Amino acid sequence: MLFRSILYTPNDPDYNSSVDFKWYLNVIQAGKAWDIQKGNPNIKVAVLDNAIDINHPDLKSKIVAKIDLANNDSDPTPPKQDWEWSHGTHVSGLVGAATDNGVGIASIGFNISLIAVKISSDSTSGKTMSFGYQGIVWAADHGANVISMSWGGGGYYKTGQNVVNYAYNNGCVLVAAAGNDGNSSALYPGDYDHVICVASTNINDIKSSFSQYGKAIDVCSPGGSRGKGIYSTVDIPYQNYGYMEGTSMATPIVSGLCGLMLSEDPTLT
Q1: What H or E segment, with its residue span, contains residue 117?
Q2: Among 35, 93, 95, 101, which is disulfide-ready with 232 (CB 3.0 to 4.6 Å)?
Q3: Which is the catalytic residue, given 49, 68, 191, 235?
Q4: What is the pTM of this model?
Q5: Of the residues 87, 211, 221, 255, which is catalytic?
Q6: Would you call the peptide bond into 189 cis, given omega within 30 degrees of 0 as the criterion?
Q7: Is 208 a catalytic residue?
Q8: Given 92, 107, 221, 248, which residue is catalytic?
Q9: How far apart are the C-alpha atoms of 57 and 227, rounded to whole Å?
Q10: Catalytic residue at 53?
Q11: What is the C-alpha separation between 151 and 124, in angstroms, rounded?
């Protein structure tokens, strides 16, 4: 008699309707992880990004703290609905979209909680993460177990390392994108000490053509490829879900997994 492994299947309709919507979860064998652990809401992953739609139907039940550091208020919602400003919303869904709720997508983080930290000024196009390092400190001071950073730039700064050290010494797991320039140049915060630097792989589980590579990389994760992106939450008129690709997408999958791991064993360092 052939016995098949039990793989937990959440009831989210997009997860069950097309493999294109969940291929990245298949690659990392998320179902096997969910058979063991479905996430603890007391574990919080802070998403530091341009903006996060806190009213998205697949996110609003998951956000336990929020801040707009650029405007100094508690509303991290994008100033307008377009693809650029949807970056943080897309990332948030990959970390911890509400799962098994009969709505939209599933996420590797399943039941973990989200902290939404907006780090871009409304006057920009949504590409400039001006308040990223302030966001690290704020997240560390407001109970984040994991800090997810899908952004970066060139140049080492001692102040940046000191900020990372502060969060690390407060028990935070820091995760950052390696970059999408397709070379071995190190970007920061990804290459600071105590940060997990994430490169991108495609549907065949090999390096995405655009992904950074080299000594800075700590781990790889699905980030897609041109024409085969990652499906997640967005803030677009008449559209709640869509595709993006990049190490920006690979990073939150790792962050959500870290949240799942800490749910199973909160003593992990």
Answers
A1: strand 113-118
A2: 93
A3: 49
A4: 0.97
A5: 87
A6: yes
A7: no
A8: 248
A9: 26
A10: no
A11: 15
